[in-house]
């Protein structure tokens, strides 16, 4: 039997993949099993519900949802699971992601969505946050996160600026 994906990445459209692949790549780097699917709060509401319930039942621990414009996907996912839902607002309109940021972050009390930054930074950080959540029960992942942080720290400290 294939391994249950610890993380499910959902996005509202194939056009979101260019940004959301940063989440997939980050999970891959940490060897975290994941599945990525295009499902939309507005265009496939029933299938989104069925998928989230199925994945929660199968043992998926964290959901990442990226969407642009009137971005209701993360909220729609949160409506069907008590697992952590990480929302990534995407820049898909003339409002450059501000529309998606507000739609994703402004959840009513009782229905939390942890909202990350707009775009690729948010997609990367959603994956890192998912790994951090999984690391509460997986010491090997915690070690990998610590090593990755050290690498970033060293890179900053070893920066050599070009001559003025
Ligand atoms: C949202 O509408 C999607 O998440 C995407 O960011 C945006 C535009 O979708 P497409 O028209 O490119 O399919 O639902």
Structure description:
α1 (17-29) packs parallel to α5 (120-134). A five-stranded parallel sheet has the order 2-1-3-4-5. It contains six helices and five strands. The mean pLDDT is 97. It is of the alpha/beta class and 164 residues long. The N and C termini lie far apart (59 Å). α4 links the parallel β4 (85-90) and β5. The chain has helices at 17-29, 45-58, 73-78, 98-105, 120-134, 139-157; strands spanning 7-11, 34-38, 62-68, 85-90, 114-115. The structure holds 5-O-phosphono-beta-D-ribofuranose.
Descriptive labels:
binds 5-O-phosphono-beta-D-ribofuranose, five-stranded parallel sheet, alpha/beta, about 160 residues
The radius of gyration is 16 Å
Largest sheet: 5 strands, parallel
The overall average pLDDT, rounded, is 97
Q: Which small molecules are bound?
A: 5-O-phosphono-beta-D-ribofuranose
Can you count the beta strands?
A: 5
- Residue ranges: pLDDT <50 for 5 or more in a row? none
Question: What is the rounded distance between the termini?
Answer: 59 Å
How much helix, percentage-wise, in residues?
Answer: 40-55%
- Helix and strand composition category: alpha/beta
Task: List the helices and strands in order.
Answer: EHEHEHEHEHH
Instruction: Name the shape in a single word.
Output: globular
Q: Strand percentage, roughly?
A: 15-25%
Helix count? Answer: 6
Strand order of the largest sheet: 2-1-3-4-5
């Amino acid at each position: 039997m294939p391994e249950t994906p610890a993380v499910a990445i959902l996005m509202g459209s194939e056009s979101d993949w260019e940004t959301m692949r940063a989440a997939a790549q980050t999970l891959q780097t940490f060897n975290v099993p994941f599945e990525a699917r295009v499902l939309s709060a507005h265009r496939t509401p029933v299938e989104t519900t069925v998928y989230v319930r199925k994945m929660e039942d199968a043992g998926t621990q964290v959901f990442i949802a990226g969407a642009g414009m009137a971005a209701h996907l993360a909220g729609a996912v949160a409506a069907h699971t008590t697992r952590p839902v990480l929302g990534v607002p995407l820049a898909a309109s003339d409002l450059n992601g501000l529309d998606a940021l507000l739609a994703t972050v402004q959840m009513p009390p009782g229905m939390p969505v942890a909202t990350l930054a707009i775009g690729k930074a948010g997609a990367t950080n959603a994956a890192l946050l998912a790994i951090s959540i999984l690391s509460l029960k997986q010491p090997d992942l915690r070690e990998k996160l610590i090593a990755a942080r050290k690498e970033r720290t060293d890179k900053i400290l070893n920066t050599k600026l070009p001559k003025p």
